[in-house]
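From the methods appendix. Each design record in this collection lists the tokenized structure first, followed by the designed amino acid sequence. Records were kept in a plain field format so they could be parsed without special tools. The example shown here is representative of the layout used throughout.

RECORD:
FOLD TOKENS (159 positions):
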């Protein structure tokens, strides 16, 4: 039968504990990064919305030079013109790109956070299982049995 220090080394308990202790700070950092990315996404969306509002105001204020009346008289015409202007506006396109990049960063960080949380749960289960296995080995060692109970054949079985 192996000694307890040998068993602890074989089961890599120090490594498991160290890894388990690292997860809370990693998760906390990832949550901070995600909060910052969400803040940047909100700012990017706000900038894009401001650019869109500017385009809408410009379209609404535009007049036909021949008649002096609004160039786009109904909602459908204004909506169609807005789509066209979004396509050609460099400012709007840049704001849309920044928004897309910020959203991708949020999604990536959210995925990373969930992965870390899953790994943390998995490590907790592995540590729990390892502790139970070591407890069984220790109880076998204390009772003089060899690992599977075969060392003490004269002992009555509980069933």
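DESIGN:
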């Amino acid at each position: 039968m192996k000694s307890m220090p040998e068993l602890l080394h074989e089961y890599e308990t120090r490594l498991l504990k160290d890894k388990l202790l690292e997860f809370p700070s990693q998760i906390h950092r990832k949550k901070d990064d995600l909060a910052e990315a969400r803040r940047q996404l909100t700012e990017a969306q706000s900038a894009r919305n401001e650019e869109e509002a500017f385009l809408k105001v410009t379209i609404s204020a535009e007049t036909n030079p021949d008649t002096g009346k609004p160039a786009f008289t109904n909602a459908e015409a204004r909506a169609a013109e807005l789509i066209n202007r979004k396509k050609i506006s460099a400012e709007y396109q840049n704001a849309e790109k920044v928004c897309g990049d910020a959203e991708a960063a949020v999604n990536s960080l959210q995925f990373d956070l969930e992965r870390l949380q899953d790994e943390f749960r998995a490590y907790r289960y592995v540590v729990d299982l390892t502790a139970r296995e070591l407890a069984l080995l220790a109880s076998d060692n204390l009772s003089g049995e060899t690992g599977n109970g075969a060392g003490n054949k004269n002992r009555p079985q509980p069933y």
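APPENDIX NOTE: The two ends are 27 Å apart (CA to CA).
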